[in-house]
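Hi team,

Filling in the usual template for the complex we talked about on Friday. All components are listed, including any nucleic acid strands or ligand strings, so the model treats them as one assembly.

SUBMITTER: L.P.
PURPOSE: interface mapping
COMPONENTS: four
RESIDUES: 250
SEQUENCES:
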Amino acid sequence: MKTIGKLAKALDLSVETIRFYERENLIKQPQKPLSGYRLYDDSIANQLQFICRAKALGFTLKEIASLMSMDGNCSKVESLGLQKLKIIQSKISDLKRLEKVIKEMTNSCKTNDDQSHCPIIASLK
Amino acid sequence: MKTIGKLAKALDLSVETIRFYERENLIKQPQKPLSGYRLYDDSIANQLQFICRAKALGFTLKEIASLMSMDGNCSKVESLGLQKLKIIQSKISDLKRLEKVIKEMTNSCKTNDDQSHCPIIASLK
DNA sequence: ATAAACTCCGTACATGGGTACGGGGTCAAT
DNA sequence: ATTGACCCCGTACCCATGTACGGAGTTTAT
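RESULT (copied from the run log):
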């Protein structure tokens, strides 16, 4: 059983963040003995790790709450995953288009003699 | 000369957004005659269009303010562009990695018989 | 001349994901 | 027994980029 500070350190989160997740109902408040100090067992630590991993995959906290409540319903989870996949793929193609435009712009700077007239600025005007 | 509402319509921005950009010093407050109403000539309209285009390329408002003040210094603009390019490219590779992971996860759902045990949830645990 | 539509200003609210603060109580080490 | 480290709670604040509101003045159309 760990106090909130120990748990935070173990998971590389801040104490405030754990309290924040509790406020947002991502995790439950654990048992609190006389002292009033939260005491965590492994089950909440595991949930927090789940949250961190899902966050790293780009799920929002709301979606993570969803995911956790969908435990035991694989097709729901799958459809949330597929939805996320679509968003990710469309972001990728947006960014690739952008990459192309900005590349072209910076290239045109390279072949530009007149320092006081920038082709990037010009093309935005 | 256009009032703020006409200008907003012409640029497909909201009146509030134009006032916001003014507060943020992206554009100057135009002349205001007796009535107190802002009256815009083309120069500010052009600046707003510049802002919109730069925003579409993924520049933040702060960067756009920078860009506008860099007019006439091509190498500075170029380096801001290259910096943005790097950020975009690293976002793309992050997202591609994510895409891969989520694809694998959702695929494993497809070949999963047990609806009540989701491999996505399992892999996050 | 009256009503509708527009503008003014300042301020508060929204989103997402936290971070920081302040005044207290508690626990662990010396 | 004292000191320092830890924890409690509620609240306010941060970032970026706007959006919304409300009461008052102005312009425009009928």
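MY TAKE: Residues 4-69 of chain B form a domain with the Multidrug-efflux Transporter Regulator; Chain: A; Domain 2 fold (CATH 1.10.1660.10). Helices of chain B lie at 4-11, 15-23, 42-56, 61-69, 74-110, 119-124.

Thanks, L.
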